[in-house]
Amino acid sequence: MSQTKPYRVSHLDALEAESIFVMREVMAEFERPVLLFSGGKDSIVMLRLAEKAFAPARIPFPVMHVDTGHNFPEVLEYRDTRVTELGLNLVVASVQEAIDSGTVRELPDGTRNRIQTPVLLAAVEKYRFDALFGGARRDEEKARAKERMFSFRDEFGQWDPKNQRPELWSLYNGRHHPGESIRVFPLSNWTELDVWHYIAKEEIALPSIYYAHDREVVERDGMFYAVNEFIVPRAGETVETRTVRYRTVGDASQTAAVLSDADTVEKVIDEVAATRITERGATRGDDKVSEAAMEDRKREGYF
Amino acid sequence: MSQATLESEEAAARSMDLLRFATAGSVDDGKSTLIGRLLYDTKSLFSDQLEAVEAVSAARGDEYTNLALLTDGLRAEREQGITIDVAYRYFATPRRKFIIADTPGHIQYTRNMVTGASTADLALILVDARKGLVEQSRRHAFLTSLLRVPHLVLCVNKMDLVDWDREVYEKIADEFTSFAAKLDAPDLTVIPISALEGDNIASRSEKSPWYEGPSLLHHLEHVHIASDRNLVDVRFPVQYVIRPQSTVVTDYRGYAGQVASGVLKPGDDVMVLPSGMTSKISAIDTADGPVDEAFPPMSVTVRLADEIDISRGDMICRPNNAPAVAQDVEAMVCWMDETAPLRVGAKYTIKHTTRTARAVVRGLQYRLDVNTLHRDETAPQLGLNEIGRVKLRTTIPLLADEYRRNRTTGGFILIDEATNRTVGAGMIIEAQ
User: Fold this and answer.
1) By the CB < 8 Å criterion, does B242 face chain A?
2) Is A239 at the interface with chain B, CB within 8 A?
3) Is B28 annotated as a binding residue?
4) What is chain A's pLDDT, residue by residue, as a tens digit (303 residues)?
5) B7 is a domain residue
6) C-beta separation of A264 from A211 below 8 A
7) Which structural domains are found in chain A, ordered by start?
8) Backbone dihedral region for residue A9 (phi beyond 0: left; psi -120 to 50: alpha; all else: beta)
9) Which of A4, A105, A231, B123 has its CA 20 to 30 A from that of A181?
10) Please, are residues B194 and B200 in contact by the beta-carbon 8 Å criterion?
11) Same structural domain, B211 and B254
């Protein structure tokens, strides 16, 4: 807070205050909140906000990773370190286990984004979570832009975009019947750049794959996919070593890297500020399936 | 770029403030085009989004790239070619960050306009220069004043289609200004624009040499919002009590919340409602350490010098400046539920600041025609998108201010007890 401009807060402080308010509302009004934690930058920022919202007490809810089994090792390592540091209770909802036990079936193309949903919903039912914090932002995608901060889901976890609760002032309606739940998005009003500014301001450590590094990749549909056990080069594809980084961290079989030399948070901010492509457009194969791919997945219960 | 420049840019980016604005206008007045234009001119539109829109436009056989597709994200909206729901958009200039609440213009979506306006610092109303003011323009201006949006901008759009005729513009501006004067509307600015061609959006256009005001973007960047906040009346609704169960931090008891108005400082005498107990602020904590003062919209944790019983829903204020402690409330209510109307005698859940209670509708004094402002005192109920003056009695007292004085402690929502839907939005006129 500068002395020359009293009683004003920066946009980043305003966003932080809003997110903290939302987290406290959930804690005050719900029985069993959980924070969806993937090890991605947005959920990492959410953890920092949760620390701040309840300090000097510990974060008063568990975190849940819906694990597709297609992980970047750096991200899993980060997840476990962070969970230990904060003394959190980690719930893992495993897509692999669900496949092995026959509750969900692997799709022919091997992608697991869609079959994450039933696994997530089964875990919600098992642990009776009634509020699920997600790191989704409205700037990510056009269906997200329409979603409420408190997003009501019926007993099947479904989102009905035409039947959303109006959200006025800072009065959030989290009322629900048993079995129903609310997805809560404290970062709704943040943009990708805001998230990076916040990471810089708070000096938050991230999994190394967010920064430029050399990696073996293949170019597919104009995007660069890391070669690993999930991405096997197809006929005609050449494996090459490129300097890349990840803008989003998702299922390793679906998430592409971008060519980048940005190896520090400052350089990433410069790059993000200058980019002409959205992070999902640049890195997510799953959103390109159809015009309304995200909306369709969310209707089914995806977060 | 040198490290020093980078750091100063960093600092500048971090110190930018935030302006929230709602857009309104009737169907086909070019609202989506204007938003598309603002995003495009501030380089907030990404090439993959633009390509996607171009591809869909081409596939549908549109004659030009339909920028409305950028903002109409849902299947149903695209099918019908209209905006159904409030969407939020983001852009930034080197001076400011902006959140747009893009609200639909259709008459059946008045509730969405109310929703978008509830948190807006500024409302932007579009009119088509060829059509002039229509019913919706007046309705949106009225809703803006009802919701106490501090700044209002009327954009006279499609000026290219009236050959930038100054007289057309001035007639609309004069008519709107005199209408707004009746509403006790706040700060009003009128700007002639062409959203399609980008005139007077990011910079002043040569096509309107007679217009001496700012471009739209210049106005959005410079409109003074710092003094809009109420820094006089200390209102701190207690949201959550922080009591660590820890062997490291012992005996900590803090009251977490977001400052609704006023400035709190350690050492201040305070009163806690509804009990009326008094104490002093001993510290104001944040996770980054204690602070010397807290003001809106900061989320902080307040500690008091005395051990008094305080829980969620209580309010910290100053002993000589307190909100009403009231179970009888009169308010303007906008009804938002399509399934059942607001009826006298019906009971609802009321959520006001961090308090939740039950409320019974004691009376409906009148229903307001939002187009003519005529009051119908014989109306038996309020249907979807209708607004009226309602008397409520609550099971526990609300700690309330008039909405015109305080948007946070003066606003409430009504929730249907059976369906849990948010069915009404209220603005308190009087609490006793």
Assistant:
1) yes
2) no
3) yes
4) 444 447 888 999 999 999 999 999 999 999 999 999 999 999 999 999 999 999 999 999 999 999 988 889 999 999 999 999 999 999 999 888 888 888 888 887 777 777 888 899 999 999 999 999 999 999 887 778 888 999 999 988 888 887 889 999 999 999 999 999 999 999 999 999 999 999 999 999 999 999 999 999 999 888 899 888 888 888 888 999 999 999 888 888 888 899 999 999 999 999 988 877 777 666 665 555 455 666 666 666 665
5) no
6) yes
7) 11-194+291-300 (3.40.50.620), 207-282 (no CATH)
8) beta
9) A105
10) yes
11) no
Which among A206, A263, A37, A26 is positioned nearest to A134, based on CA atoms? A37
The B residues from 383 to 412 touching A (CB cutoff 8 Å) are 407-408, 411-412
pTM for the full model?
0.92
State how many domains chain B has.
3
Q: Which of A169, A247, A258, A265 to mutate: most B Cβ within 10 Å?
A: A169
- State whether B111 and B156 are in the same domain: yes
* A-B C-beta contacts closer than 8 Å: 200
Domain boundary (B317, B346, B376) is at B317
Nearby residues of A49 by Cβ (< 8 Å), 6 or more positions away = A16, A19, A20, A23, A186
Query: Is B304 in the same domain as B395?
Result: no
CB-based contact, B87 to chain A, within 8 Å: yes
For every residue of A101-125, DSSP letters joined together read: TTSS---TT---HHHHHHHHHHHHH
Q: Which of B200, B227, B254 is the last residue of a domain?
A: B227
Note down the domain range covering B284: 236-317
CATH number of the domain encompassing residue B253: 2.40.30.10
Same domain for B341 and B214: no
Alpha-carbon distance of B201 to B197, in angstroms, equals 9
Whether B29 has a binding-site annotation, put simply, is yes
- Name residues 332-371 of chain B within 8 A of A (Cβ): 336, 349, 351-352, 354
Peptide bond preceding B274 in cis form (omega within 30 of 0) = yes
SS3 state of residue B49: helix
Give the residue among A265, A133, A250, A135 at the shortest CA–CA distance from A190: A135
Residue B286 CB contacts under 8 Å (≥ 6 apart), including other chains:
A52, A55, B298, B299, B300, B301
Chain A contact present for B6, CB below 8 A: yes
For B170, counting Cβ atoms within 10 Å of its Cβ (0-12 exposed, 13-18 middle, 19+ buried), the class is middle
Optimal mutation site among A1, A8, A146, interface B, most CBs of chain B within 10 A: A146
Is residue B182 located within the same domain as residue B74? Answer: yes
Find the length of chain B.
432
ipTM metric: 0.93
Same domain, B181 and B123: yes
Is residue B298 a contact partner of residue A17, using CB atoms and an 8 Å limit?
A: yes
The answer for A 249-288 residues in CB contact with B (under 8 A) is 266, 269-270, 275-278, 281-282
